[in-house]
Specification:
By secondary structure, this protein is mainly alpha-helical. Helix content is 69%, strand content 0%. The protein has 19 helices and no strands. The longest helix has 18 residues.
């Protein structure tokens, strides 16, 4: 009886959409069944990995109690366990059989879910794409941290399939669309950068424009292209150029914190063409726009991120 109660609680609070079918066996050949087969095999081959994940989970409640912000950062607990923790983490995330000790607080359960998703996402395992897709597109948990973690895990795949999924969801609006739009830039593919540029060219409201500026900054980030494992290296120049062009063209159309976000993103991208793009934008700007573009050019010349 107690196990059944815990199963239901886990389903409701740890990504209900994935665990709603916990009482019924997944259909043969479904992505859930495939994951459970992998989990069962891993448990036989490396039971110690499951014990290590259990130990990490037991520390989440304490981190939650000591947190200073709204959500405890627990992903480092799981990242340090390495690739061997893949299937134990998937089991905890997608098929929890009972509530872990010390996880009575909603904030602790949320931190656990997000931490597992962030650690799993960094492993970039293609077998988990159906899991991320389900969480983002149809998962019952629509809290922003959960949706962002799912979208971020998809983006880290840096594949055309992942980019197309994120683009489709980003156009739906609402919490899911906002999360997809926010993380689309981390995919760092040309198709993703163009989708973000098109969205910004539509001159959306301030909130969406800020989100698009940050995402374009992620897509074209000079630092990220130098230090990350971006798979589409051949697209770097085009991605950074598309991002810079979209940001510069939008710059004089916004004011206040949106303009500041656009300026910050321009500096992060730091594309070689940026100065000429600013000169081109001057040709179509009014007096106030010219002053703003002059300020942007000056800031670019003294870019502290170089």
């Amino acid at each position: 009886m107690r196990r059944d109660v815990y199963r239901c609680l886990g389903a409701a609070l740890l990504l209900t959409a994935l665990t709603a079918g916990a009482a019924d066996a997944p259909l043969a050949g479904s992505w859930q069944a495939v994951l459970q087969e992998q989990i069962a095999r891993a448990r036989k081959e490396r039971p110690e990995a499951f014990a290590r994940v259990d130990s990490a989970v037991s520390r989440v409640g304490l981190l939650d109690a000591r947190k200073r912000g709204t959500l405890a950062s627990v992903s480092p607990l799981f990242r340090e366990l390495g690739p061997d923790a893949l299937w134990p983490m998937v089991e905890r995330l997608a098929f929890p059989s009972e509530q872990a000790k010390g996880m009575e607080q909603n904030s602790a359960r949320l931190a656990l879910a997000v931490g597992l998703m962030e650690a799993l996402g960094e492993l970039r395992d293609a077998r988990l794409v159906p899991l991320w897709k389900d969480l983002l597109e149809t998962g019952a948990d629509t809290r922003a941290p959960v949706l962002r973690a799912a979208a971020g895990a998809l983006a880290r795949m840096e594949t055309l399939e992942a980019a197309q999924m994120l683009i489709a969801v980003s156009r739906q609006g609402g919490p899911r669309g906002e999360a997809a739009q926010e993380k689309l830039g981390e995919c760092r593919l040309l198709v993703a950068a163009r989708a973000l540029a098109d969205a910004l060219a539509a001159r959306p409201g301030p909130e969406e424009a800020r989100r698009l500026a940050r995402s374009l900054g992620d897509a074209g980030s000079a630092w990220a292209w130098k230090t990350s494992g971006a798979s589409a290296r051949s697209e770097e120049g085009a991605v950074r150029r598309v991002a810079a062009e979209a940001l510069v063209r939008a710059y004089s159309h916004y004011t206040g914190d949106v303009r500041q976000a656009l300026s910050n993103a321009v500096l992060r991208v730091d594309a070689p063409e940026t100065a000429s793009l600013i000169d081109e934008a001057r040709l179509h700007a009014d007096a106030s726009g010219l002053a703003a573009l002059d300020a942007l050019a000056e800031r670019l010349r003294h870019n502290p991120l170089r």
